[in-house]
What we know:
- The protein is an alpha/beta fold.
- It has two domains: 1-38, no CATH class; 50-237, Endonuclease Chain A (Endonuclease, Chain A), CATH 3.30.870.10.
- It has helices at residues 10-19, 25-35, 52-63, 82-90, 98-111, 113-116, 129-133, 139-152, 204-220, 224-237; strands spanning 66-71, 122-128, 158-163, 177-181, 189-192, 199-201.
- Strands 3-2-1-4-5-6 form a six-stranded mixed sheet, sandwiched between helices.
- A hairpin with a 7-residue loop joins strand 4 (177-181) and strand 5 (189-192).
- The longest helix has 17 residues, at 204-220.
Amino acid sequence: MEAGIRATSPERVRILASNYECGDHAYIDGLATMADSRKRGWWEQYRGILPHGLLDVAELEWFATRLRSLQTVHVPGLLQLSGYARAIFDSALPPLPNSEVELRVAQRMQRQQVLERETSVEYVAYVHEWALRMQFGGRRTTREQLAHLCEVSERENVDVRILTVGVGAFPGAGHAVLYANGAVPQLDTVQLDSAHGGEFTHADAQLAKYRAHMDWWHAKSLSPQSSRDLIHSIARDL
Length: 238
C-alpha cells in the first residue's frame, strides 16, 4: 500500500485507524473519502511519462477543499493559457524535448478542471506585480495571458490579488507556494517549487508558517477589482 502497488479502500483505512487506536473520527472520515475513488484519477494517464511530482500536485489539487498560491515570477499554473505555459516549459534547463514540453502543457491544462468542474474548488491566487511584467512567450502571448487572467478572476470561485512593487519586501524566499486545505486540518499540505522539482510538507510548524505568509499577502495585496485594473493597465502598456 505504501508503495502504491495495492489500492487502499475506505474499509481498510478504517481498520488501520482502529488498529492504531486513532479516535479522531473527522480525520478518519477525510482519509476514507480520499480512498473511496471508484476510478483512477485523470492524472494517472501520465504515470511513467511525466515526473511523479507533477502528478502529485494534480492529485493534491483534486482532493483539496480550498487552494491558495503565491507566485512571484509567473502567472499561477491553474490560470495559464497553453501558449504561456509552453513558454515557461521551453525555458527549462537542461532543455526539455518538444514531446515532453507538450505533455507538460497538456497536463497543466487538465489540472484546471478543479476550477471548472461541478464541485469546483475555491482558489485564491496572490501574484506579485513583477510576475505580470515577465514576458514569457513575448508581448503578444503575455498580453493574451493577462487578458485571460482578468477573465477568470471574475469567476465566483477564483480570487486574484496582486501585490504591488510599492509594498517593498515580502516574507519568504520568493519561490512559488501552494497551500491545499484538506477535509480536516491534519490533511492540509504545502507544495513548494524548486529547481529540482516540487517539495511537499505537512508538518504543523511549517503549515503555520505558510498560513501566516498567506495572511500577510492577503492583507498587503490589492482588492480583486483593483488587481484587475492593474492587470489591464499592464496589458495595455505591452
